[in-house]
Structure formats: C-alpha cells, structure tokens
C-alpha cells in the first residue's frame, strides 16, 4: 500500500467558512434586534470521546454563528445528532430519537434537523435516513466538519435532505472554533482514524486512516488551555501509541508525553486508547517518568483465547498481553488498569470464553468495559460463520460482569482509609451537596466538602467503597482553581 500524505485544510478555505459564519451571525443578530428572539441549538452526541470532541467543535461553530446551547428540543432552532455506529444499539437509539422529532418539525418547519458523525459515513445509513426520515434537513460525515457552515447555510434553502459526505481519508483541520464543556479539563485529539482493522470494528471504515497532528500544534493547543486554567488534558486517538508514525519526523507517543509533561499549569495528563501491540518499553518508561502522566492505563484486550484474538486480527497473543501487563505493573505497582472486552465473537466456544475469564482473573483490572459482540455490516467478522446465539452471549456476559465486579470491589477496598489527590469536577449529578472528582488512577470519588470549587486539587480520605466508585471526606485543599 502506498502511503498517502495528510491533507491540511488551507487557511483560505477556513476563512471562506468563517465568512459564512459571520453572515449567519449577522442574520441572527438582525432577527434578534427586530423580534427579541434569541437562537438556540441542541447537539446530541453518541459514542466515544472522539465524537464528543467533534461536538465541541460544532458547538464552537454554532456559538460563533450566534446560537446558544440548549437541552430543550422545543426551544431549539437547530438540532444536530452526532452519531456512532460501533454497535447496533447505538444505531437503533438514533433512529428512535430522530423519528420522535417528526411532529416537532411538522409544527415548526423552520427547525433545522441535522445528522452527522460516524454512522453517516455508511451509505446504507444515509439511504435509510433519506428514505424513512424525510424531516431531516442535512447530513454530513466525520471528515467535513470544517465545512459545516457552508452545508448548514445551504440547508436553509433546500427542500430535500442535503447530503454532503466526504470519502477523503487524510484530512487534518487545525484552528476550528471550539466550545469546550469544561474549563478545568480538556480532551485534545492528537490523531485521527485507525489503521488496525480489528475484524469486528467499523471505526477504520468511518474514521479513515491514522493521521497524527503535528506535535507543535498539539503542544500549542495545550499551552493555550493551560493559560485558560485547564489542569488536566486527555490525549485522544483510537490508538494513541502509534502516534507520529505517519509524520515522517522522528517522534513517537512517548516523546509527545515528555513534551506535554513540561507544560506549566497542566497538573494531569491522561490518554486513550492504547493498543497492546504498540505499548513499547519506551512508552512504559515515559508513563513512569513523566510526573504529570496519571497512574492509569486503559489497555483493551478484547478476548483471552489466542484463536479468537487471531480471528479478531488483534495481532497479539494472550501470553504477549499478559507479559506487557506484568512489565507495566513491575514499573508502576500502583497503576490502575482498565480494559475493553467483547463477549460472543463468532466462533467463541465455552473454552475460549474461559480464557477471557482467565485474563480477567490474572490481570485483576480495576474496571472493564464489557460489550456483547455486535455484527457490523462491512466488517470481516460480520461474514464469519459460527455467529453465537444471543442467549449464549448474554449468559457469558453476565458471568463476566459478576467476576469483574468482585475484582473491582476488592481493589477499591484497598483504597479505604487512605488519602488521595482528587481533581474536583463539581457537584454530583444526583446530589448537589456532594462533590465529585477523580483520583489520579481515574476512580470516581464522591465526597462531602465545603468551600471547594470545580478545578481544585484536593486531598480526600476514602471512607466508602463500591465496584464503580469511592466515597470520601475532604481533608484539605492543595491547589485552588485560579
Ligand atoms: N480504538 C479503541 C476503541 C474502539 S471502540 C480501541 O481499540 O480500544 C471501543 C470498544 O468497543 C472496543 O474496544 C471494543 O471492545 C468495542 N467494540 C468495537 N466494535 C464492536 C462490535 N462490533 N461489537 C461489540 N463491541 C465492539
Ligand atoms: Fe477498532 Fe481495533 Fe481500531 Fe480500536 S484498534 S478503533 S477496536 S479497529
Ligand atoms: Fe462510535 Fe465513531 Fe467513536 S463509531 S465509538 S463515535 S469513532
């Protein structure tokens, strides 16, 4: 395969889009001046952090156009669905939610409804929406978010659903506006796409080939974030530890961690996701040596049986995975390990599944994100024989969760009575008098504490333990959000 160069969207193109943003903004302002009515937009995001990060850019663009954010469909002038197609249930949920807007669109024809994201990179999904959900005004994909102003403006004048999907694989866009949800922590995409083609996974087909942002652009973005009060960054990509391979300069993910570690004001660095095949000794050392890199590694293993791993195209064996984990644990005994596991991949026998449980018991993960295998059209696994019966998948899935919950709970029990540094995320969603935050190891901790603000670093003593979270009491404030 010949390597394609990354394509950078030119400043002139972005300037053209910006002119459209300004034009729409002026229209909205004029309307406000004559009618007193503010404009609102709602973005509903499904899927992973990659999509959340894209939604922050769309929000940034909409904000510059003069739209305020809302969670209320009734209030919204624009509703955008940023979709995911990694598993079937994500798709089904979307169809239900778009269908539910039909009456709203009938009563308010000027409402603009848009669908974007990963699912729209699949032809059959686009066809389905065009055919069955005619109240959708515009559809665009993952590669042309930068063109959203132009597509959006056109959609005002179109009668049919406007579709603008780019197949282009190698696009990188810098300097898009962004409206981040939080000030104290931020997701920073360091690379787009994926080259791994795990046989069950749709992501490489909808997100294109791996392409890394230039290190100076990543570092510059994080400097600016730090200046704005950001304390924690999560470096984002489908496989961050293959960062840099496409850049043609001598830099890898470990080198990038050292660079980010030097940025003043940033207190914590996280990253996800890592593919076991690219977890080098150099990277393990970097995680250990960089004081700001948190003691947490998310390292999906997917399945324990070598037969299934091969069929999944994961290119490592169970033994190699366990070997890497033991290296990580030897270098950093207190590191928290989390993982992703798929249950019921085609051909997975009872013995194969036992191998998955064996890895879970041997590694003792702090937490596992467990998924029932979902057939994705267009992937090699969807065409495999020996698809597993639903009841079988569910039986094993329940067993896996039981085993993992017990381990999570036991590990968390070891936190009881100790004091940990916590970055405060704010009041808990369920109880406004309780604050919530995370330890460096990534554990959610809810605690009672007064005079503490979002973004403070505090010491919290663990007093209660659950499988998925901890409870604690505030000991002291280490650093307040300035
Ligand atoms: N690039 C990341 C995340 C990919 S999607 C990684 O490789 O880890 C997140 C998780 O969804 C995957 O790790 C996998 O466990 C799960 N997943 C992906 N495709 C799936 C499918 N077809 N059925 C069930 N789970 C799937
Ligand atoms: Fe999908 Fe595998 Fe790429 Fe992750 S590494 S996005 S599971 S193909
Ligand atoms: Fe879903 Fe796309 Fe992420 S398919 S998991 S939103 S990359």
Structure explained in plain terms:
With about 475 residues, the chain is of the alpha/beta class. The protein folds into three domains: about 10-165, Rossmann fold, CATH 3.40.50.12160; about 185-410, pyruvate-formate lyase- activating enzyme; about 420-480, Nucleic acid-binding proteins (OB fold (Dihydrolipoamide Acetyltransferase, E2P)). Helix content is about 35%, strand content about 20%. The chain has 14 helices and 21 strands. It has helices spanning about 10-35, 50-65, 90-100, 100-105, 125-130, 150-155, 205, 215-225, 255-260, 280-290, 305-310, 320-330, 350-365, 390-415, and strands spanning about 5-10, 40-45, 65-70, 80-85, 110-115, 140, 160-165, 170, 185-190, 190, 210, 230-235, 270, 295-300, 335-345, 365-370, 420-425, 435-440, 445-450, 455-465, 470-480. Strand 6 (about 140), helix 6 and strand 7 (about 160-165) form a beta-alpha-beta unit. The chain is globular and about 65 Å long. The model has no long low-confidence stretch (mean pLDDT about 95). The structure holds S-adenosyl-L-homocysteine, iron/sulfur cluster and FE3-S4 cluster. FE3-S4 cluster (F3S) binds near residues 47, 51, 85 and 86.
């Amino acid at each position: 395969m010949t390597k394609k160069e990354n394509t950078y969207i030119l400043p002139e193109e972005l300037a053209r889009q910006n002119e459209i943003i300004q034009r729409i903004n002026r229209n909205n302002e004029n309307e406000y001046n004559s009618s007193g009515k503010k404009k609102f937009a709602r973005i509903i995001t499904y899927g992973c952090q990659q999509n959340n990060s894209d939604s922050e850019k769309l929000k940034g663009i909409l904000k510059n156009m003069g739209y305020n954010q809302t969670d209320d469909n009734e209030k919204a002038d624009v509703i955008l669905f940023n979709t995911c197609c990694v598993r079937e249930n994500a798709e089904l949920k979307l169809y239900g939610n778009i269908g539910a807007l039909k009456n709203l669109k009938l009563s308010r024809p000027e409402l603009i409804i848009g669908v974007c994201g990963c699912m729209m990179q699949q032809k059959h999904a686009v066809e389905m929406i065009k055919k069955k959900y005619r109240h959708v005004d515009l559809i665009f994909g993952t590669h042309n978010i930068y063109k959203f102003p132009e597509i959006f403006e056109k959609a005002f004048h179109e009668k049919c659903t406007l579709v603008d999907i780019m197949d282009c694989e190698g696009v990188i866009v810098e300097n898009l506006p962004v409206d981040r949800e939080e000030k104290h922590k931020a997701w920073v995409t360091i690379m787009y796409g994926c080259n791994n083609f795990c046989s069950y996974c749709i992501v490489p087909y909808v997100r294109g080939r791996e392409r890394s942002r230039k290190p100076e652009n990543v570092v510059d973005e994080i400097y600016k974030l730090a200046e704005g009060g950001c304390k924690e960054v999560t470096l984002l990509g489908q496989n961050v530890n293959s960062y840099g391979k496409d850049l043609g300069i001598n830099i890898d993910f470990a080198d990038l961690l050292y660079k980010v570690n030097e940025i003043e004001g940033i207190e914590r660095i996280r990253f996800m996701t890592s593919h076991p095949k690219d977890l080098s000794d150099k990277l393990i050392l970097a995680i250990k040596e960089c004081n700001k890199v948190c003691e947490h590694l998310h390292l999906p293993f997917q399945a324990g049986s070598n037969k299934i791993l091969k069929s999944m195209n994961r290119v490592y064996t169970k033994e190699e995975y366990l070997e890497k984990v033991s290296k990580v644990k030897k270098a950093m005994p207190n590191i928290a390990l989390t993982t992703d596991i798929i249950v019921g991949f085609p051909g997975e026998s009872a013995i194969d599944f036992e191998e998955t449980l064996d890895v879970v018991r041997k590694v003792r993960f702090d937490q596992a994100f467990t998924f029932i295998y979902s057939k994705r059209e267009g992937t090699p696994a969807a065409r495999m024989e020996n698809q597993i019966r639903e009841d079988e998948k569910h039986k094993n899935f329940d067993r896996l969760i039981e085993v993992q919950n017990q381990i999570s709970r036991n590990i968390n029990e070891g936190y009881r009575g100790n004091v940990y540094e916590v970055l405060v995320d704010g009041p808990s969603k369920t109880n406004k008098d309780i604050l919530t935050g995370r330890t460096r190891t990534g554990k959610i901790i809810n605690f009672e504490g007064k005079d503490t603000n979002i973004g403070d670093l505090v010491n919290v003593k663990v007093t209660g333990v659950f499988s998925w979270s901890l409870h604690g009491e505030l000991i002291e404030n280490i650093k307040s959000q300035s």
